[in-house]
Amino acid sequence: MADAASRLTALAEESLSQPLPVRIRAWDGSESGPPGAPVLVIRRRRALRRLLWKPGELGLARAWVAGDIDIEGDLYEALGRLAGLLWDRDPEDSVHPVRDPRARAFARGLLRIAGPWPPPAPPGEEVRRRSGPLHTRRRDRQAVSHHYDVGNDFYALVLGPSLVYSCAYWRDGGTLEEAQRDKLDLVCRKLALREGDRLLDVGCGWGSMAIHAARHHGARVTGITLSREQAALARKRVADEGLTDRVEIRVQDYRDVDDGPYDAISSIGMAEHVGSVRYREYADDLYALLKPGGRLLNHQIARRPEKDEDAYRIDAFIDAYVFPDGELAPLGRTLTLLEEAGFEARDVESLREHYALTLRRWVANLEQHWERAVRATSPGRARVWRLYMAASALSFEHNQIGVNQILAVRPTDDGGSGMPLRARRWTASAGDA
Question: Which spans does this entry mark as compositional bias, Basic residues (predicted)?
Answer without folding.
Answer: 130-140
